[in-house]
Records
---
Amino acid sequence: MNRVFCLVDCDCFYVSAERLFDPTLIGVPVVALSNSDGCVVSRCPIAKSKDPRTGELGIKMGAPFFEIKHFMKSHGLRVVSSNYALYQEVSNRVMRVLETFAPRIEVYSIDESWLDFSGVQGDLEKLGREIQAAVKKQVGIGVGVGFGPTKTLAKAANFSAKKWRAQTGGVVVLMDEIRRDKLLAWMPVDEIWGIGRQLSKRLEAMGVKKAIDLQRYDRKSLRKLFNVNVEKTSMELEGVSCYALSEGAEPKQTIASTRSFGERITELQGLREAVTTYASRACVKLRSEGQLSSCLQVFIQTSRFDEKPYSRTAICALVTPSNDTREFVAAALEGLSKIFVPGYRYAKAGIILSQFVSGEGYQPDLFAPERRRNSETLMKVMDGINARYGRGSIRIATEPPIAQWAMKRDYLSDSFVTDWHQLKRVKMT
DNA sequence: TCTGGGGTCCTAGGACCC
DNA sequence: TCTGGGGTCCTAGGACCC
């Protein structure tokens, strides 16, 4: 059967989502910032590639906010802090539309999905335009669509659809070899899905500069020099499918809650508060996944750019798998006490949970210490109260109600779709 | 002054076993 | 002087992705 993968991804997703609810953001340069308003993670086209004739600003992906802040005054740049609750809801709406087109779909990230059209007869380009139109009409978001016989080629198709937006209308079908190789002969190796900064540097040094060079390179050597994934990528560029569509989310293997602080922390007390907060959040995620964990890592670090850097991780094993916030907070605080050294300006801390077993039907070890009584009931009550009255309504006492070190979100939009009190109002006149 | 967060997978190398 | 070999498992670290 003819395999056909289709990649649909949203145009500058965070910015587009914000524009849905704030029309004043339309037609002006806009970027969305990462957590803590640290750096740029989404840019509209006017903010993106540099072109003085059209007034484009040339803001790079990942640019630190403080370096581009001056554009707000000089060029009317608008910025928004990340509002993940909003983006997740808009994402769900997009995915629901996509599901109506394909029998099998893999939600790949918050703003992209793989669709499987293997065996489908007919005009793929027309299909792509129908998908575009449907998402635009039903959700209000623009998307790019790429078709190919492998995931890597569908990605490449999607890339060229965006690169030559005006000519392609945002839809590219890359099913025949001549068209495929023409694009790959042009495409720089670092634009290939799966080839990042380090790999492309090494490849270029070997003379592998374009995607076509990687496609034609000796596969055995690729595996030897790099790893099996580079070999697979090379095969995928030739139309041999190595990465399948995976439906239904696999259970997570790790759960993390990590944040940079709004301001540096120097005292142990502040770190205890932060670590308690993150451990609590990680446990909420853990319970919502129906899992138990038996390993917690806690880390604290200064800024990467600090002249006096420090970074340590403590690993704490639990005797018995658990999802009880109290146990993880206790373990995290104990770990913290082992790695905390005074005299540093801490910028970030985090918790990572791992080594999961399914909570369903879990049989504790015969010799394991008895779990805390009523643990399950208590956690259920905690989650219930917090779901109903808001996060932190009930919490471990080391977690402060309002944290002094909380992350900066100076340009946060309202919770238009997740809070009754912040719904948009429409005035009829 | 100010530089994100949350994931996955692969590999090298050490520990350990027979 | 001479001091095995091969397999498995685990983990830290590095690479990638969005």
Note: Residues 33-39, 41, 62-67, 69, 82, 227-229, 252-260, 303-305, 348, 350, 352, 407-408 of chain A lie near DNA strand B (CB under 10 Å from a C1').
---
Amino acid sequence: MPARVIYWFRTDLRLHDSPALKAALDLDPEALYPVWTWDPHYVYHAKVGPNRWQFLLDCQSAVSEGLSQINPESRLIVLRESPLTILPKLFKAWRISHLVFEKDTDSYARKRDDEILAKAGEAGVECIVKYGRTLWDSDEIVGINNGPTMTTMQLQKAGQKLGPPPRPIPTPSSIPPPGDLSLKDVAQDQPGPEYFSADQNQSNRTAEDSTYHSGLRGPEGDFSVPTMEELRMSATTPHRGGEKIALEILDRIVRDKEYTATFSKPDTAPTAFEPASTCLLSPHMHFGSISCRKFYWDVLDVVNEWEKSGKKATEPPCSLTGQLFFRDMYFAAQAGVGTYFGQTLHNPKVRYIPWHLPSKHQPNPDDILKSLSIKGTYHVDSKEAEEWFIKWREGRTGFPWIDAIMVQLKTEGWIHHLARHAVACFLTRGGCYIDWERGAEVFEEWLLDHEISCNAGNWQWLSCTAFFSQYMRIYSPIAFPQKTDKEGKYVRHYIPQLKDFPEKYIYEPWKCPIADQRAAGCIIGKDYPKPMFDWKERKEACIRGMKAAFEAGYHGSDVEVVKGNARDVLQEKFKDNIESFADATSNPGASERKGKDDFESRPTTSKSSKMPAKRGSGQVTLDTMFARKKAKPEDECNDI
DNA sequence: ATAGAGTTGCTCGC
DNA sequence: GCGAGCAACTCTAT
């Protein structure tokens, strides 16, 4: 019996180097249905901003065109229904013998795919699943490494045992047509109310999403790729998706042999834009519009040639191939840790820190609102932390370097890796002391290249909760960008209010004399906000907090954390240490500290930060904070 | 056991 | 521009 195959596209929107697609074609099928299922989980429950939606639709359209170029009868068949319900119906309607797809090790995907495999089994449909998203099969890496890979060395060693990643498979020269596309007796199952009521992307829509309203086949009845209009979204990014664009970028990179062979990630400038200092292939890697193995081998061929001519090439982890190893490391870390990889709670690899604004993953819902307020320590009121978080998200912190990055992230969906470091460090251990999961959620929504494994892993890295632990190394929002952009071109581009600001004060505009502010047409506190806190003061407080949490040594799967006691235990256990530490360090810098007028509204008085903390006295609670706010309204007017 | 390395810190002094 | 010092964590190789 000739095979009749559904090729299910998910993380692999390309035709070159697709091991799963090759496996489907190797069946020599009489019919091949290239299918995309419109998963309501992704439409409503995953955070996906307009820019990433556009990129996905670009990639789908490109695959569809690519298929049609190989065989005019072929194209991407988009079915507007959950795979869990539509695929079993298709098995019958199209008399399917095989279901083929690329392996996905994300936790939601694993669960979904297990269900699909079971349903296919019931229907007598044979399934073929091939890894193709990473250099090596992440599950095999985990097996060889005896657990999740937490260093690139572990990844590379395990990879060595598996042998070099396979060379890329060429784009197929022929593809069978799909068979009969009629859907007799197949009715559309629309998403239930539980999806609409929990729409994570509502704020990005101008009206209710309508992608399901026109039935299984879409408005033209032709299974076409949905549009941004149907999603009720509009994108702002200049970066566009699709296999052709991705291959052109890679080709341009490897044609520049010196750039390719001597690439050193830490030396690339996060302040560079138009063009950026790195390749911008990460969104394509996310959607599969470029194969990471093609990237790997195209680069390695250039490197080998470069070295053959006696010239020195860079090596992992800094080189381009090293970047791919990090990606595989995070994938294998997630594959090994499992469902809880993206959170602290229940995650044995992630260190517990009593962050402000704990994420939604807490043992008791009340814990999310819980705040500690010991004066002179890293603790602040949760209301204040909430304000910091909102300002960070919206790019209104008053630190131009941080704000410019957040503006670029929101509008363009891509920022340089080191820019991600800067804002992630600032939000967590290097400023706000806010839960990394809160920041990761913002990245999840706005990044074109959002990959749960890499995003969560990098947030763990930057917050010093896993992968990396040197919490003394904190990025300065002033000194760091000056290394590559003394003039502040980047800041001037993304924060136009500051475009004529004096170079001397571009990263700390609150220090600029008022006459110069007027001359630059930007009054700090009016046209651009004052800094939301004294960064050096916050940095020191964060280090004290990290030190205490590291001494406690809790991790996400420890019983105290799972039971929800860790925060209280830690507070009790380290209250004395923290305060004595504060005693010893709070005075030296006091004389250099600027007056309170230089900063945005501060619920705690400036006096309190200069004075050594006295045990058990003068705690700032919600009530006293609001009392102060009421009593001193002028403090609230700093940014007017 | 101990030393050294680890993708990318900052400040200061030369 | 470079190196030392800051004060410090974790894993790996020996």
Note: Residues 578-596, 601-640 of chain A have pLDDT under 50 and may be disordered.
